[in-house]
Every structure is written in C-alpha cells, then in structure tokens.
Amino acid sequence: MSSVTPRSWQGFAALALLAVAVLFWPIVHATPGYGIAAAALIFLLLLLAIAADNFPPAIGAILLFIGAHGAAWILVAGITGNEGTARAPFYLLLAAAWLLAWRCVTILSALRPTSRWAATALRLIIPAIFGAWILIIWEAVTRGAGIPFILLPPPSAIGARIANSLPILAADVRQTIFKAVIFGYVVGSGAGFLTAILADRVPFFRRGLLPIGNMVSALPIIGVAPIMVMWFGFDWQSKAAVVIIMTFFPMLVNTVAGLAASGHMERDLMRTYASGYWQTLFKLRLPAAAPFIFNALKINSTLALIGAIVAEFFGTPVVGMGFRISTEVGRMNIDMVWAEIAVAALAGSVFYGVVALFERAVTFWHPSVRGG
Amino acid sequence: MTGASPAVVSASKLGLTFSTNDGPVQALTDVDLTIGKGEFVSFIGPSGCGKTTLLRVIADLEKPTSGTISVNGMTPEQAREKRAYGYVFQAAALFPWRTIERNVALPLEVIGLSKAEQVERIKRTLDLVNLSGFEKKYPWQLSGGMQQRASIARALAFDADLLLMDEPFGALDEIVRDHLNKQLLELWERTNKTICFVTHSIPEAVYLSTRIVVMSPRPGRVSDVISSTLPKERPLHIRETPEFLAIAARVRDGLHAGHSYED
Amino acid sequence: MTGASPAVVSASKLGLTFSTNDGPVQALTDVDLTIGKGEFVSFIGPSGCGKTTLLRVIADLEKPTSGTISVNGMTPEQAREKRAYGYVFQAAALFPWRTIERNVALPLEVIGLSKAEQVERIKRTLDLVNLSGFEKKYPWQLSGGMQQRASIARALAFDADLLLMDEPFGALDEIVRDHLNKQLLELWERTNKTICFVTHSIPEAVYLSTRIVVMSPRPGRVSDVISSTLPKERPLHIRETPEFLAIAARVRDGLHAGHSYED
Amino acid sequence: MDSFRDKIVPVTSILVGIVVVWYVFAVILNAPFQRDLDRRANVTPGVVEFMGKTLAQPKPTLPAPHQVAVNFFENTFLRSVTSSRSLVYNAWVTLSSTLLGFAFGTALGIVIAVGIVHVATLDRSLMPWIIASQTIPILAVAPMIIVVLAAIGITGLIPKALISTYLSFFPVAVGMVKGLRSPEFTHLDLMHTYNASRAQTFWKLRVPASVPFLFTSMKVAVAASLVGAIVGELPTGAVAGIGAKLLAGAYYSQTIDIWSALVAGSVVAALLVMAVGIAGRLVDRAMGGRAA
Amino acid sequence: ADKVTLQLKWVTQAQFAGYYVAKDKGFYDEEGLDVDIKPGGPDIAPEQVIAGGGADVIVDWMGGALAAREKGVPLVNIAQPFKKAGMELVCPKDGPIKTEADFKGHTLGVWFFGNEYPFYAWMNKLGLKTDGGPDGVTVLKQSFDVQPLIQKQADCISVMTYNEYWQLIDAGYKPEELTVFNYSAMGNDLLEDGLYASEDKLKDPAFEDKMVRFVRASMKGWKYAVDNSDEAAGIVMDNGGQDENHQKRMMGEVAKLIDNADGKLDPATYERTAKALLDQKIITKEPSGAYTTAITDKAIK
Ligand SMILES: Nc1ncnc2c1ncn2[C@@H]1O[C@H](COP(=O)(O)OP(=O)(O)OP(=O)(O)O)[C@@H](O)[C@H]1O
Ligand SMILES: Nc1ncnc2c1ncn2[C@@H]1O[C@H](COP(=O)(O)OP(=O)(O)OP(=O)(O)O)[C@@H](O)[C@H]1O
Ligand SMILES: Cc1ncc(C[n+]2csc(CCO)c2C)c(N)n1
Ligand SMILES: [Mg+2]
Ligand SMILES: [Mg+2]
C-alpha cells in the first residue's frame, strides 16, 4: 500500500475512504456477507486505480476506469441476498470508486485526441460514465439500504422490465410520441412562431396579443388536459392539444426576443435596399433570431414529452406512456413506471439531440457554436 | 456643373439633434447643400462632426429635427423606397451567416435579380475589389480590409444612381486604395452616378471630387465648400500638380479652422 | 538599437495556417523577427497579408502552427498572463452596455486598480484622445472615429510596456491623426515602451517608427525590414525632409513589390 | 416601448373578440347535452330560449364567459381573503411556492449553465442527463418525491417549490448556456489580453452579454414554475391553491370553478411574465439599451 | 397522546366520514390518540406513502394492498369498514347498452389506477376481449369525472354509488334513465376501503395496541356517522369537503356499505377477492397473512 501515492485530490480522498472503511469493517451486518476474496479484490482494484493516476493519461484513464468500475461491480453484485443490510464501509467503498471514476472523467475530458474517431468516442464515453454512475449509485443505495421496491426499484429491475416489455413499450411510444408529441410540437411551436411574427408585423397585435399570449403561458396542464379531453375526445388529439398549449409560449417569447436581436446597422442596411418587411425578416431578422428560436425548440422538445405523458393521466385509450405510468402506479408495478420513464428520457434525449444538431448546422456562425 | 444639372440632394437649414441619456447632442445645424446629378462630392471633417449623420439623413436612416431635405426631388423616404441609392457603411456590416458571395448577393436578391444576373454582378464586383478566390469564405475568415472591400462590392453590385460611401477605403493600404480610387472614378465617369463620399484623406478627397464639403464639429456645420478645378480625366500623377496641391491646401485650412488643437 | 536592447518579441520561422470550410489558408509563413526593448515597429502591407494575424500571435490570441515565438523571453501565453502588453483591436470592440468611461475603466477593474487611480487614468487618457465630455455616452452614441479613439484610450489606460496597435488611427482625420501621432511619440519617448503598430499609411509608418516591417501577402511573409535613420526627436515637419521621403519611397517600393496590380 | 395606454385599446378589443368567440363555442359545445336534457324532459324550446339555456347550465361543457366572470368575481372579491374558497387566498398559496421555486430554479439553472460553460467535464457529461431529467413526467414522480421528502420530514411549501424548481431550471439552463457563450470573439479576445480571470470575464463580459437570453428564459421559467407549483399541489392532498381548486372542480365536474381557477392561474401567469419583462427592460435600460 | 397518521385514498369527502367524525367528536382523544388525517388524491398511492414512512395506517382497496404486499411492502388488513363495494357501471337507457349482451363493439369507461380489476374480471367472465376489436369492447381510461358519458365519448362509465352516480343525477339524468351494473350485486366486487398497516410494525405490541384503539375509535366514528348522517356530512365539510348537499347524499349511500360498523373482515369475501386477483395475475401467488382479525377482535369486544 505504501507504494500507492495518489496524485489528485480524488485519489487522496479515495485512499482516506479506504482507510476509514477498514476501521468500520464489515461491509454488511449479515452473514455470510462478502467473501474474503471479493473484499480483497475490491481493495486491490481501488488501489490499482489510485496508483494508475500516475501513469500517462491514456493508460491511466483506462486503468482508473477498470479499477473504479470493477470494484463497484463486485461491491454491488455482493449485496445480492443481503439487501438492506449495508453498513458504512459499503458506502465508503462506493464513494471511493465514484471519486476515482470522477478522476477518470477529468483525465478523459482533458484529452485532446487527434483523430476524429477518438474525439467522437470520447464525446460519447464521458457522459456515459457520468450516467453509469447515476445508475450504479442508485442500484447500490436502493439495494444496500433496502428501499422498498414500490418506492424506488433498482435500475437492474427496471432494465429487466424494459427487456421483457418491449412490445408494450413500443406501442406506448407509437401512441404518445409518434402521434401526440410530434404533431403537438410542430403545431405548437409553429403557432408560437407565427403568433410572434404576426405580433411583430401588426403593431395592433403586438400590443394586444402579447399580453394575452402571456396568459396562455401557464395554463396548467392539469387544468387544461380534462378540458381538451372534453373538446377533442380521449384519443391522441386531446394530448396533442395539450402539447400545443405547452409549447406555444416558449416559442412565442423566444421568437419575440430573437426578432429584436438583429443589429441596428444590419437593419439600416436592409432599409437602404428598401427591403420589404418579409425580405428583411427572412434575410436578416430570422437568421439573427435563430439562436433564440432554437432555444425554444430545445425547451419544447422536453416540454412536449412531459405534456403528452401527463395529459394521458386524464382520459385515454388504454395505450400510451402516460396511461401506462398512471395505471402501473396503481398496480404497484413501479418498475414498469420507471421503464416508461427511461424510455421517455431516451426518446427526449434523442429528440433534443436532433434539434441540437440542426441548431449547429443552422447557427454555425453564432459565437456559441463557433466555440465562444 | 452644379447649377445646370438637376439637384439630386438638396438640403436647407438642415438640423439634427440627438437626445441622449445625458442631454441633447447637436449633430447637424443649418446645413445648406445642393448636389447635382453626376457630381462627386466628398465630405471631410474632424471625427464626430456629423458626416455620417448627414449621409444617414440623406439615406432616410435618420430624420432631421429641423430644416428640409429632398433627394431626387422627393423626400428621402420616397427616394429610399425607390432604391435611389447604395450605401457603404463605415463598418462592414456583413451578415455572418452568409459567405462573401452571398453577402454581395443580398441586395440583388432583395431587388429580385435573376440568378444569372446575380452571378455576373457578384463576379464583376468581387473582381473589382480584388476578392476573387474568397467567394466561399465567411466574414470572420477575412481580414478587416477584406471585409470592408466586400461591403464595397456589395454596394457596387446594387448599382444605384446615387452612391453614399462612408469612409469606404479607411482600412485599406495605399496601393489598394489607389487602385480602388481609380476604379471608382472610372465607374463614375462611365455611369454618370452621383457620389457622396466621406473620407479623412485630403488627397483622396481632392483626387476624387468635383466638390469638397468641409465640415466642422459641435455643432456639425458646413464650414467650406470647395469646387474642384481639376479636369474630369484624372491620372494618378495629377496628385503632384500645383493645382491639386493648392486645392488640398485650401481643404487643409478649412479643416484646421474647425479644429480646436493648439498645434 | 535593435541589437543592444533585450528582445521583447522574437519570432523564428513562424507560420500559421487557418483551416476553413474551403481549404487551408496560409496567413503567415517563415516570419523571422526580433523586436528590441523600446523599439517602435510599424507593420505595413496589403490588406489580408497577415498583419493582424501576426499581432494576434504575439498576443497569444492565435497559436502558430509552425516555428517559435517568444515575448519578453517567455511564451506568448506566459507574457499575456503577466499582462505584458496592451492591445488596440482593428475594430473598436467596445462593450455596448458600458459608457465610454466605464469601457476605459474595464482593464483597470480587471487589474484591480483603486477607484481613485481609475478615475485619474480615465480622465487623462480620454483627454489625450480628445473625448472629454463624452464620458457618459454609450458607444453607439459616438461616431466611428470617436469609438476608435475610445478604444485607444482604453489600451493606453492599461499602460503595459508593450503596445500592440492594429490600425488604431484608421478612422481618424488628418488633424486628429497628427495630434495622436505626436501624443503617441511623446508617450513612447517618455516611457520607453515597445510599440508594434499596424498601419496603412506610409507617412505615418515612417514618421513614427524606428523600424518598418513590410509584409507581402498570400502567404504572409516579411518582405522587407527598414530601419529608420530619423532622430528620436521628430517634429511634424520632419515629414518634408528628404531623408523622410527617401525612407517613404523605399517602403512604397517594398509595398508595390508585394502587390499584384499592373498599375 | 408601448405605454400602458397604448395597449388598452388593442388588449380590450382582442379580449372582446375572444369573449365573442367563446360565447359562440359555449353555445355549440353545450348544445348537445342541452338537447338531450330537453328531449328527456320532453320540451322543445325556441332558439333564443335554447341558447339561453346552453349558457346557463350548472355544469356546462364550456362555461359561458359571464358564468366564469360571476364565479371569479364572487370568489375573488366577495370572500374574505383568508377563506379557503377565496381565489385570492388560493392564488397566494400557489404564488408563494411559485416564487420560491422560481428563485431556486433560476439560481440552479444559472449555476448549471455556469458549470457547463466553464468546466469541460460538466459540458460533456451533465447536459445529456439534464435533458433526460426533463423528460421524466413530473406528475408521475411528484408523488414519490413528496412521499420521500415527507419521510425525511420536509413538508409544506418546500416540496411544492421543489417541483417548480425542477420544471423551471431547465429553460434557464438552456438559455444561459447559450447566453453565456454569446459574447463576440473580439470581446473575449479583449478580456484575454487583460489576462482577466474566468470570474472577471464572467461578470464583466459573459453575464452582460447573456442578459437578453436570461430574461427570455426567465419568462419561460416563471411560467413553468407556476405550472410546477400547481402540479405540486395535487399530491399534497390538494388542500389549498389553484391546483386544489382545479382538482376539486374537476372531481365534481364543476366546470365553472375550473374555468375561474384557470382564469386566476392565467392572470397570475400574465402578471409574473410581465413582471419579468419589466425587470428585463429596466436592466436593459441600465445597460444603455437602445430602442429597437 | 400517541400519534397516528392516517392516509386516505381520495380527497376529503363523506367516503371517509367515519374518521373525520371520530376525530371531531373526540373519539380518538378518548383512546389517547392524536390522529393526523391526510387526504389523498388522484395521484397519491397510499401504499407508497406507508412504504415511505409517511403514514401508520392507510385506507386502501384490497387489490392495491395485495399487489404491494407481493412487491415487498407487507400490508396487512386490520379492519374492513366497507362490507360492500360501491363501484358500478352505468349506461344511459337511451344508449345502445341495455344488458350484458349489448357490450360487444362499444366503448366503456373504466377507472384504472388499480381500480380496473373487477371490470376485467367481469369481461373475462363474459368472454369479451378488451382490445378494441369489433368482437370485444373498447376500453377508455376514464378520468375522475362523469364527462365521458355527458360528452357521449363512452357508452357506459364507471361510477361509485355514493359519488359519481349522483353527479349524473345532478347533470339531469333520472335514475330510471340509467341502466346500472353493480359489481357487488353481480358478485364481481373486490373489497374496497379497508384499513391496512405494516406487518413489521404490528409485531410491536405497543403499535398493535395503538391500532386496536384506532380501529375502535374509528368504528365508533363510523357508527356515529351512519346514525347522524347530516351532521357527519357537515363535519366532512368543515374538513375541506366540497358541496354540502352532495356530501349528505354521499353519506347516505356510504352508510349502506358500512353495514353494522364492526369493521370485521369477512374471510369468505377476502378469499373471493384474492382468488379474483390471482386469476387476473395481479398477484402471482396466494397471499398469506394478508389480513388479521386480531385487531378487530380486540377492538369490538
Ligand atoms: N445615435 C446617436 N445618439 C446620440 N448621439 C449620436 C448618435 N449618433 C451620432 N451621435 C453624435 O453625433 C455626432 C456626429 O456623429 P457622426 O457619426 O455623424 O460623426 P462623423 O462625422 O461621422 O465622425 P467620424 O469621422 O468619427 O465617423 C457625434 O458627436 C456623435 O457623438
Ligand atoms: N479566423 C480566420 N479563419 C480563416 N482565415 C482567416 C482567419 N483570420 C484571418 N484569415 C485569413 O488570413 C489572412 C490574413 O488576415 P489578417 O487579418 O492577418 O490580414 P491583415 O494583414 O490584418 O489585413 P487588413 O489590413 O485587411 O486588416 C487573410 O487572407 C484572411 O482571409
Ligand atoms: C385516478 C383515479 N381515478 C379513479 C379512481 C376511482 N376511485 C376510487 S375511490 C374513488 C372515490 C370515490 O368516488 C374513486 C373515484 C381512483 N382511485 N383514482
Ligand atoms: Mg462617421
Ligand atoms: Mg488587419
């Protein structure tokens, strides 16, 4: 152990945690608990990781990765059968592994790979490690502390549930996302955009419409959703209507702000061409507003999903992500609830990612994209 | 030359006062000025004397607070709507999301030229300002002087009868400047455009102009108007003739009168 | 002067290539240059030849892609971190949300000067560039030349030993320019600062400099370095002396050599 | 900017337009049920009488504006503000958690944005998970959050405010990441030449440059906070607040109550958004903002 | 006094009058209890609240309680104040459905959130598919109101005898215009509103004693509420109930479900409920120890 000298504060902290963990031995207050081999392996892996910090970045990062995650794996696997019996060392060792993973991410973030391929890989790996640790800590704490399944199931159970319920999940995604969300998102964002243009074009509407647009801003879903079910029926159309209402305001506000964002000299330039309202709009003001408009599109990409799901808590056909969530809560199948949530999170991230890609392509000239 | 041709710009008792957080600023007072068709008028004067403001009033980008002004016999607004003039701003004002050629294409799109005509004009004006080869670059990939030249190309491509140019050659080296001066004179002679030209360079003003308007600051007034006696045909070496130097001296005196430095 | 004093800037085989959407652009190649303490070096060259880029490399705003450069014997980065230089950008780059005096105060706040010291320096430098009375105005309420002067004031207030100035007087009329030239020379003599100065005006370059670096474009190279034989004490009328004109002619030749115009 | 008086005419005329359309829809939407009723009661009213009846149902599909107005007026002005049936009281309950949540959310959003802009590790790792977090339907997890918080002894205002926070931090984070990255390159270069610290560049350049983005995001965030506060009221037993009114109304099909609670919510929302707008304009003016 | 927290399954209304009456009339005080009654709502799962430690005892339906038990929250029925179920399916007589034979091809409103089991059991018995095909029924997840019927979005909807049924009456339907399928009457009912506590805690004699006193006082409250129905409705109103008339009516209907207010669970009904849940795979194995009569035995001596 004396040969292991940490190089970062994470390394020091991890070493200290290991020492404290030894003081409070054992890991669980149940017999048989962890075997001597498993415990030794955890320590070995963690010490290896601490030592690896001194290696060249690329190798160090790989060893840190192996050490931290290997230790975490053994630790979490070992709690099987002993759920709810974890003692302090369990959490201390987990914390040590987490710190080392953090160190690993720090090293990875600092790497400036030359090949495009490696850069892309890094861009994926770093958030993946971060996410993995959310799951590891979640798994370890729910199982270590024995948190009731119906309050919060461990991710492993959720994963198993996802794997077993793919057809149901697919049907729900089809109903909620491909019908309500996409339609509502397009129409709602479009309506917010057009309203902003209308308000911009016609001063009468600017004065009259914007204050009223503000009132739409916070029409609470739970108030609106039942009304929409009344008006548009219980199928996806009413959910789309809720999404429209939810996505309208962010787009309105952002477009209005964006339309004010173009520079004075540029506007003067267009004036000298006696450029008409629409030409100035399309050639100058909308491109200048694009960063704002994309902000709205990004915010809406997640709002639309929340809106559609929550709207399904009211009246729906017996399919859809929101329907499933509210129904399975009642059946105490909380793992299914989280499976839907996980799918929603994945879909939302993809949705957001697509919007962000478009943003990069369209507003490539903006300092925030050029790397300000 | 002034009297005969119809007035393109005609201002009388023109005044403009900006109100700012910190009291009013008189940018122009009592400006009387008539510019005839086909004239090349330079405006020269110390920094902050109101040259830009005057050009902006002509261009209907600023409303005068007193006096009257007409452009082509109409209000500046009507003239602007008729696309009576092209304007080169003091700063380049290129759109960052457009490449250089697309920036030059901007006014052409606005007036609705055919694609072929656009391509032709872009090529011609970019050649003129020596930016061939940079068509596909974005503004931030160009040097300061190149950006300024792109903005000149954009105004020339617009091809209006009245050109308002606010220090177009400020950021250019002597040689490019001489080159562009010559090109501009050629263009002016060929097309009989009317040009209002702001500059800080006395030789440039004398070399180019049929008339030089000297302005003095705070409040911005026209302190002298000097008609050039130089022939319309002007080779570069005319700048060493005594006639040229005499006019330059008079401009310099006018400028000094308006300045407050003790030196 | 060059040999004896310690090198402030020393570049060897310096090269910089930008990669753009549309292929690489060689902005600098094989630049060898040593600037000694207390020198006043002007850079002159056609638009787009790499003057700004060179200044930016010295200032650690751009990383060279080949060759080496040191500033005050350190890397440009270390020098920047030691606040070795003040920089006047080609565009004024004033913060639109700050008044003129607050813009000038910006670097002073950053280096943590006392309020009293700040007030004193702001007053002094704004006086120097003739902007007293405009302290409370916002940048957009100033003319182009006034904005440029404000940015000069800001750099002078920073008061570093090395001054990098990118066409600081481009938008100024002759008289203000002469005035500021004189002020700058005075300041330089008094404080023994080292100044790197980009300009398009040959007389300005000759009048101010101890050495003139002539650059030529595509790819940007140093084509000539001319040491001035003028005395350190330079009244304005030195510009009519044969010695002055001889140097100017040499600079002009160097410039022409780098240009591609047939005239 | 338009003065208040300039706005009165357009706002009222548009409101009048909305009310007219509303009446038309009220008649149309309430007609089928009224026809059923009449048929079962075996009466055949004239057109005017029929329309009158559609606008006077006790539990209409779409309450007529005057029904909502009367209900709103009674519950706003005729009840003591401490009564649990007073809209003022309920709006206040909601408003307090909204404001607290909005304050938390804005602060959290800014902190996250600052982290993302300044720390490469966070930029790469945090954003995807923040996005994922936002796709979790709050109404599904709100009860669990509230149960868990109650279990560790946190009850009352805080849990509701936390749900507001959860909804409102995201627009601020997204907007501020953009805003803090929007300074021009020459301005960043300038700060660079001063060797300004990150903190100095942040305060003197990034923050002022982000202001338009900040206030735009805050408008969206304050609206989201209000939605969050209302949603957060449900799993706490919905005892008080606009959300409680909505729920009680929905549960007993008291559509008029629902609509007057909705109107109350909208008024609160409009006021909040306008307040943010005014704050934005004041800041803009203090920054020498130039009229458009 | 000993503190007890009771989590209700729904918002404050006469459905829970017994507990409010017991609190208001001081029956809990008499037993040395300080009871905190937490109202529920559409998205409160009492099972989660008790699992999170937010309540000592909950009002729940047996389906949810047994499902939670299987998922590791050892709920035990300690008393069953509601002897009969109040859920029914109603269809307007002027609609297409008059008898069970008419269901095919029509849309039915069903409450989910754990309340759907009796419906599915019933459809199962009728041999009807529920996937929306032409030879089955289309199921609509009904919100907590009666709008789907008024809007004609469904041909029949779920109601509680004591609540939504009366909202239909208020909306202008006359009782004779409605066809009612009552789950209890059809023998398809599952046990509603029982009191459940955690098995682990019940092992503690002090807690058990507390529950005995709680059930005793609660049943006393129920008895009082049944006997003084209007006063009980008033007490509910004082505690946040809405619409006094409605609460009075509800109290009247709830009284019919309470029976003799001894709170004793009938093992036969329990067995039937458990079997129905097993049949529908809501639970996968025969529950054991999911109820105890020890508490009610001690409480009602
Ligand atoms: N928008 C404005 N608001 C307030 N004052 C202004 C505004 N624009 C210009 N000014 C003031 O008007 C005066 C004239 O400005 P103008 O830009 O016309 O000068 P200029 O002659 O073009 O100077 P330069 O040669 O420096 O460009 C200056 O004092 C300036 O401060
Ligand atoms: N960010 C960039 N990306 C790509 N190319 C660039 C970039 N900046 C400058 N260049 C190119 O580098 C060359 C030199 O530019 P630089 O700005 O140094 O010229 P300069 O000598 O300062 O010219 P000017 O006198 O016009 O300001 C130019 O051809 C320009 O197009
Ligand atoms: C979301 C949701 N919808 C309906 C019910 C059904 N339900 C069970 S008890 C009760 C109150 C009596 O009227 C009602 C309506 C529920 N529990 N949750
Ligand atoms: Mg100007
Ligand atoms: Mg340059």
Gross morphology of chain D is elongated
User: What gyration radius of chain A follows from the Cα positions, in whole Å?
Assistant: 26 Å
The CATH superfamily of the largest domain in chain D is known as MetI-like
Low-confidence stretches of chain D are none
Judging from the principal axes of the Cα atoms, what is the shape of chain A? Answer: flat
Distance between the termini of chain D: 9 Å
Explain this structure to me?
The complex is a heteropentamer, with one copy of chain A (372 residues), two copies of chain B (263 residues), one copy of chain D (292 residues) and one copy of chain E (301 residues). With 263 residues, chain B is α/β, with parallel strands linked by helices. Chain B has two domains: 7-84 and 161-260, P-loop containing nucleotide triphosphate hydrolases (Rossmann fold), CATH 3.40.50; 92-159, no CATH class. Chain B is built from eight helices and nine strands. Chain B has a six-stranded mixed beta sheet, with helices on both faces. A three-stranded antiparallel beta sheet of chain B has the order 2-1-4. In chain B, helix 3 (100-111) crosses helix 4 (115-128) and helix 4 crosses helix 5. Chain B starts with 6 loop residues before the first strand and ends in a 6-residue tail after the last helix. Chain D has two domains: 1-62, no CATH class; 87-287, MetI-like (MetI-like fold, Orthogonal Bundle). Chain D is 79% helix and 0% strand. The termini of chain D are close together. In chain E, strands 2-1-3-10-4 form a five-stranded mixed beta sheet, sandwiched between helices. In chain E, strands 8-5-9 form a three-stranded antiparallel beta sheet. The mean pLDDT of chain E is 87. Chains in contact: A-B, A-D, A-E, B-C, C-D, D-E. The interface between A and D is large, with 78 and 81 residues. One adenosine-5'-triphosphate (ATP) sits between chains B (18, 20, 25, 27, 45, 47-53, 90, 220) and C (140-146). Chains B, C: Residues 11-242 form the ABC transporter domain. Chains B, C: GO terms for molecular function: ATP binding; ATP hydrolysis activity.
